[in-house]
Write a structure and sequence with these properties.
It contains 19 helices and 19 strands. The chain is α+β, with helices and mostly antiparallel strands. It folds into three domains: 156 residues, Immunoglobulin-like; 212 residues, Rhopdopsin 7-helix transmembrane proteins; 151 residues, Alpha-Beta Plaits (2-Layer Sandwich). The strands form four sheets. Strands 1, 3, 4, 6, 8, 9 and 12 form a seven-stranded mixed beta sheet that branches. Strands 2-14-7-11-10 form a five-stranded antiparallel beta sheet. It has a five-stranded mixed beta sheet with strand order 16-17-15-18-19, with helices on both faces. Helix 10 runs antiparallel to helix 11. The longest helix has 39 residues. It is rod-shaped, with a radius of gyration of 42 Å. Its cofactor is Mg(2+). Keywords: Membrane, Signal, Transmembrane, Transmembrane helix.
Length: 571
């Protein structure tokens, strides 16, 4: 029994040692990149990496270390400030070749060094310091480029030292001269497209803010600006176009902290959380306070702030998503649109956070996750703003319609007495300021009771409507016409003296007297009106006295046989 147990134990120990030996062997083994043919365009190959925890190890010490096998694209997180990459090359051609080693992410590095070893001897060393212009001959628009010459069948080992400010992520490519030029031409075109679309949305929303004065449009534009700057900075567009890299570019990373601050301000305004959703409002305000503290901290210690940026970004995603879900549960009409767009942002940005922390493998979506997420969310938020503008315009139109209904007579669509009195007082103040005359007229349909008795109330209503329509057509555009009730109408004539007003009203009276209305089954109907006209004295504080004078003139017209106009004369 003991013998069997011993054999079983020995077998397990042997398997464990074999597994350990295999893993060490695999970790230490780095395949050689065989360079042959023409053109040379090598963007996928095996390499190895080693992280120097102190950053003080010499090249001689590093080259004897065990390198972990990897691809030529790495994301190692915030604890790999000093990373060495080992590449084995062999020229299998029968002629010498010249290669160009590209490091497209050099713009966010502190420094980049290349050590070339042949037959165990160090034959060439180069240092690219992002803050030292004397070393920038190895940099082209933010991309590190080293030329390498290989003789026929020569085997060479490259050691690339990458020193980063915060997160360590890099990719290395090998090209011949022609392919190197093409790679440089194609660089950052996708980022330029992203930034261009975001800036177009910025211009649109700034114009929208000036036209509507809605704060959410302004905050959304600020969010887009900070996003555009951060995307252009983080993905090398600012380095490529304006030469912004190294320590100078480091403080531009503050825009990363500005993005979520403006997004939260946008949420507070577009959802009106302060007045409608107090619990969600306090959650957003607390998150914004934390982001603001990090922003201020970043002004004094940007490197320290960047160490917490990924974790704080993850917390921000949790808070904003939770608020969106809460508002959806509470049936906010635009919450589901925001939630859809924000979930796209969270998904891609979450992948990017994992990438920056060295958890997710290097890929385009992982390395560009924040940019892709911002683009998708920005398009959805633009839709939300458009929908909200449409909603507000609809509400405004409904309010205007309600105001119009409150100000007009439902039968004739003329202004009612309440609106007329308000507008008349306003016109009186204007007349006082401009020292222009103002007149008023009262019109009444003659013998209207007979029309109702002989033809019925339906025909009587048609007569009132016809008079109202004629007054609209015959009065000037600046005149204010109202129905005061029954068969009585009032006209206010701005910038018009009493005599001129009398002539205008007299012409209207004659035109109405010549009208003939067709009445089914009965004789054609004609009718007349009487009118009284009065000047509005500028010394008056209201329109009531002038209206009473116009009424007196109307009674005079009635008592004088009707179908006439009379002008009130102040004795």
């Amino acid at each position: 029994m003991k013998g069997r147990f011993f054999k079983h134990y020995l077998l397990l120990a042997s398997l464990a040692l074999l597994s350990l030996f295999s893993s060490v062997t695999l970790a230490a083994y780095i395949p050689t990149v065989l360079v042959s043919g023409n053109p040379i365009h090598i963007e996928h190959f095996y390499a190895g990496y080693f992280i120097d925890p102190t950053g003080e190890m010499s090249f001689e010490e590093v080259k004897d270390q065990s390198f972990t096998a990897s691809s030529n694209k790495l994301s190692l997180g915030i604890k790999a400030h000093f990373t060495w990459v080992k590449i084995k090359l062999q020229n299998t051609n029968k002629h010498p070749i010249k290669l160009y080693l590209h490091h497209p992410q050099t713009y966010h590095n502190r420094s980049l060094s290349l050590y070339e070893v042949t037959r165990g001897k160090l034959i060439r060393t180069r240092l690219l310091d992002s803050d030292d212009k004397a070393t920038h001959q190895w940099m082209y628009r933010g991309i590190g480029i080293f030329d390498i010459e290989l003789q026929p069948q020569e085997l060479r080992t490259l050691y690339v030292k990458s020193e980063t400010f915060s997160h360590q992520w890099l990719s290395l490519f090998l090209y011949d001269e022609e392919q190197s030029k093409r790679a440089l031409q194609d660089s950052f075109s996708d980022i330029a497209l992203m930034v261009g679309m975001l800036l177009a949305l910025v211009v649109y929303n700034i114009l929208l803010f000036f036209s509507s004065r809605r704060k959410e449009s302004l905050f959304y534009a600020c969010y887009l600006v900070s996003s555009s700057i951060w995307i252009a900075l983080s993905y090398g567009l600012l380095a490529n176009w304006f030469g912004i890299y190294g320590s100078v570019a480091l403080y531009w990373q503050l825009t990363l902290m500005g993005m979520p601050i403006f997004l939260i301000l946008f949420m507070i305004n577009v959802f009106e959380t302060k007045t409608k959703y107090p619990l969600e409002h306090w959650a957003l305000c607390l998150m914004m306070a934390l982001l603001s503290i990090e922003f201020v901290y970043g002004i004094f210690n940007i490197r320290g702030a960047l160490l917490y940026s990924s974790s704080l970004a993850a917390l921000m995603m949790v808070v904003t998503t939770s608020v969106g879900i809460s508002l959806q549960i509470k049936k906010n009409p635009i919450a589901r649109y925001f939630l859809f767009g924000h979930m796209l942002f969270v998904a891609f940005s979450g992948l990017a956070v994992l990438f920056y922390k060295g958890i997710a493998e290097f890929s385009y979506l992982a390395s560009h996750g924040v940019g892709v997420g911002v683009m998708l969310e920005s398009l959805v938020l633009a839709t939300i703003i458009a929908y909200r503008v449409k909603l507000l315009e609809s509400m405004k139109a409904n309010q205007e319609e309600l105001k119009l209904l409150a100000a007009t007579d439902p039968m004739t669509q003329l202004y009612n007495r309440r609106y007329f009195n308000t507008e008349a007082d306003f016109q009186l103040e204007l007349a006082k300021q401009s020292k222009q005359p103002l007149s008023i007229a009262v019109l009444d349909i003659d013998f209207f009771k007979r029309v109702n008795d002989n033809y019925g109330h339906a025909v009587g209503d048609q007569v009132i409507i016809q008079v109202a329509k004629s007054l609209k057509e015959l009065c000037r555009t600046k005149d204010i016409v109202a129905r005061f009730g029954g068969e009585e109408f009032v006209v206010l004539l701005p910038n018009t003296a009493a005599d001129d007003a009398f002539n205008i009203i007299e012409n209207i009276r004659r035109s109405l007297g010549e009208m003939v209305m067709q009445v089914e089954g009965k004789n054609n109907l004609t009718f007349t009106i009487s009118a009284g006209v009065s000047a509005v004295a500028q010394r008056q504080n209201g329109i009531e006295k002038a209206l009473a004078f116009a009424d007196d003139a109307l009674y005079e017209a009635k008592n004088s046989g009707r179908n006439r106009s009379c002008l009130y004369h102040d004795e």
